[in-house]
Design goal:
Layout: H1 5-13, H2 16-31, H3 40-54, H4 62-77, H5 83-86, H6 89-92, H7 96-118, H8 125-139, H9 162-183, H10 186-201, E1 213-221, H11 226-229, H12 235-246, E2 254-256, H13 266-277, E3 281-289, E4 295-302, E5 308-313, H14 327-332, E6 349-351, E7 355-361, E8 380-385, H15 394-410, E9 414-418, E10 424-426, E11 442-449, H16 456-459, H17 463-478
Parallel strand pairs: 1-2, 2-3, 7-8, 8-9
Antiparallel strand pairs: 1-11, 3-4, 4-5, 6-7, 9-10
Length: 483
């Protein structure tokens, strides 16, 4: 068996730059658990190495250690964030690496603070501190809960536990498993590795046959490149492509278009859309404005008679993309742009034949504190998005994984429609059947399954996570565990 003093001596004798480089690499390794790689055992190894290293003698600060671990993790998981700057690469392409660097370095501050607070005094507390860091970035400064650590299990059966402990409970569980891998006796380490491998190889719930179909929905997936979407010479042709994809003799109850799919003012389009729908309700995305010149990213419901029955305005806007934080201060320095206004969600809208739906537009689906937090429990989540901004690989895959997470956590089905990305129907277990992927163009007709009973997490979102945290703190403060 490997002498434990070998890695310890190597770590003690390594120069500072090498130590920090190794921690950075460990964070990057941890990021490979997220979609589209979906190898959670690498997350356990990466985080485990970072947690182990902080327990050794350090000549640099604990903050630097945690920060470098976080930079590595976010540099890998947020690579997709460069894609929006590459749409018009000649004008904004130069900004792409700076955007990734700024995001990775900024979010890593939460991890650095976690390691600095614990300072290695009670090693088990790093689990609680890192969990608190992930919780903080979910809520502070408008929040950005993308690629939470617990999501690495979304493509394994283990994420079904999220129906009880939610996404933050899954994050705490994952960090604790990584700590165990770093500090447990060898037989327990091998057992944990074997468990992770078994979960990785176990077929996940990917297809379903809904026992009780609520309705049949047609998903319109036009696959429009972002560079073409707002080209004045192509907008009418793109709009007509949506109309043509609706025209069929097959009977459907509902048709859903992607985000901002109607370029015209909606009063000019709703009659034509209703006529093409042949008796079905239609959900469409477009931009709208109010009488006081507020502009919104909007989801509207058009009845078979062509009436605009309901509208929902996007409430969780993308900072700097859809609005400028501290706009007054920015204007003082000469930074002014036409921005969207905030809607008043989360909310539900009644859709005949389907029930109460919670409309979600793109970015809103990543917030566990937003989805499902309505006065009336929805029967269905409807998310429309334009994932063309995210490119073809990592971004759409992670965005879709988080949609599945919301369905599992709440026991609610979701209709997800993307311009580019993944369009499908997800059931309350996170399962999905036929789908249209990033490179596909066309439509697909799918049954909408009934919702499941409210999950434990939906009714008591913080109970189990609080008990997990209390247990870890208690054990850490009583004595250093030997596991």
């Amino acid at each position: 068996m490997l002498d434990k003093t070998i890695p310890i001596n190597f770590w003690d004798q390594a120069p500072r730059w090498l130590r920090l480089s190794m921690v950075f690499a460990a964070g990057g390794l941890a990021g490979l658990g997220q979609a589209p790689f979906d190898v959670p055992i690498l997350t356990l190894f990466g985080l485990g190495l970072g947690i182990w290293a902080v327990g050794q003698s350090l000549t640099h600060s604990h903050f630097a250690h945690g920060w470098m671990l976080g930079v590595g993790y976010f540099a890998v998981t947020l690579t997709w964030i460069m894609q929006p700057f590459l749409v018009d690469w000649q004008a904004t392409g130069w900004m792409a690496p700076f955007a990734l660097t700024a995001m990775a370095a900024g979010l890593a501050v939460f991890w650095g603070a976690a390691f600095a607070i614990v300072r290695g005094r009670k090693p088990l507390l790093i689990c609680v501190a890192l969990f608190a860091a992930e919780l903080a970035r979910t809520y502070l400064f408008t929040g950005f809960p993308w690629a939470l650590i617990g999501y690495v299990w979304i493509d394994t059966p283990l994420y079904q536990l999220a129906a009880f402990i939610g996404p933050h409970g899954m994050t705490l569980l994952t960090i604790t498993m990584a700590y165990w891998l770093a500090h447990a006796w060898s037989p327990y380490r091998l057992g944990l590795i074997a468990l992770a491998v078994i979960l990785q190889l176990t077929p996940n719930i990917e297809a379903f046959a809904p026992p009780h179909s609520v309705a049949v929905v047609r998903l319109i997936h036009p696959n429009v490149a972002q560079a073409d979407k707002w080209n004045p010479d192509r907008m009418e042709g793109i709009y007509q492509r949506h109309i043509e994809l609706m025209d069929t003799e097959a009977g459907v109850d509902l048709i859903v278009w992607p985000e901002t799919s109607v370029y015209l003012p909606i009063p000019m389009a709703q009659s034509e859309i209703a006529a093409a729908a042949q008796g079905a309700y239609v959900i469409v995305g477009y931009q709208s404005n109010s009488s006081d010149n507020q502009y919104f990213n909007t989801l509207g419901i058009i009845s078979p008679k062509g009436d605009l029955e309901a509208e929902y305005h996007k409430s969780r806007l993308v900072p700097f993309g859809e609005y400028i934080p501290f706009a007054g201060l920015a204007a003082f320095f000469g930074v002014q742009r036409d921005m969207f206004s905030f809607g008043d969600g989360p909310s539900t809208v009644y859709l005949p034949g389907v029930g109460n739906i919670q409309p979600l537009i793109c970015y809103e689906g990543i917030f566990p504190q937003f989805v499902g937090h309505t006065d009336i429990r929805p029967d269905l989540l409807v998310l429309i998005t334009n994932d063309a901004w995210f490119g073809k690989g990592q971004g759409p895959a992670q965005h879709f994984a988080q949609a599945r997470a919301r369905a599992i956590e709440l026991g609610l089905p979701m209709v997800r429609v993307a311009n580019r990305g993944v369009s499908t129907v997800i059931d309350g277990n996170g399962a999905y059947g036929a789908s249209l992927q990033v490179d596909d163009a066309g439509f697909i007709d799918l049954a909408i399954p009934a919702s499941l009973p409210p999950t434990f997490f939906a009714k008591y979102p913080w109970v189990i996570t609080f008990l997990m945290t209390l247990f870890l703190v208690s054990v850490a403060l009583v004595k250093r565990p030997r596991i």
